[in-house]
Amino acid sequence: MRLAVVHARLQVCELVRFPGFSAGTLAFPGIVFVLFGLPRAGHHPNLLLASYSAFAVLGVGFFQFGVSGAIERGTPWQAWLRTLPAPPTARIAARVLSALVFTLASVAVVVVIALTTTSASLSALAWLRLAAALLAGSVPFVVLGLAIAYWASPKSALPVANILYMLLAYAGGLWTGPADLPHTVRTISPYTPARQWGDILWPAATGAAWHASHWLLLGAYSVGFGALAAWGFARDEQQHYR
Predict the structure, then answer these.
(1) Backbone phi, then psi, for 119, in 5-degree steps?
(2) How far is CA 91 from CA 6, 26, 79, 108, 174, in A?
(3) What CA–CA distances, in Å, run from 156 to 82, 161, 238?
(4) How far apart are CA 140 and CA 142, in angstroms?
(5) Could you say which DSSP state residue 163 is in?
(6) pLDDT in tens, 58-85
(7) Other CB atoms within 10 A of residue 233 CB
(8) Within a 10 A sphere around the Cβ of 207, how many other Cβ atoms?
(9) What is the pLDDT of residues 101-147, one digit of tens each?
């Protein structure tokens, strides 16, 4: 664990030195909330607070795990790290810890904007439920980010992550809410992982009961994306070290 913490600290320092990544990760979800969420926040501010918090988490999953992982995979530094007698789980745990730092900061930006510009207000229990939904519901997107890291090349990872980021967030109703989606998209939306996540986040923000089916479907997505990521990892290890 100590090795993972040290490696995570180095990753955070490295990413902070690249304002294009750190500033973009922190600012983009807040900007999108101001442009698209704020005009709709009059009637359902708590729902949009939850949605755009998830949008912030989604971005960290795709870009810090996916894009950064794909770029680092081909660097001499990463190749050297993989020759050390440390298990791959230490590197992955370090990336999770460093991603948690950026996730908290990115979500905090959205929450501050929402609380200061809308009438959003959550009880202590609702905050706890929302935090649990954000953390647990992010798992399939984190492992999907890892799948991007191991299957996409450094040059293709960014466009792939951008396309998935925007499409999943929009189709899942995180930008507008499912009721405001076009009819065709609304038909597809319930089958997307982002919509299942939304169906967990929105009850957390409103105090409604959770339905086990949404958790089960997110778990199924986690298993599927995890298998894809593990396959990509094994393929990458075989190509470079066997």
Answers:
(1) -95, 20
(2) 10, 23, 12, 26, 31
(3) 23, 9, 21
(4) 6
(5) H
(6) 988 888 778 877 877 777 666 666 666 6
(7) 18
(8) 12
(9) 888 888 999 999 999 998 888 999 999 999 999 999 889 998 898 89
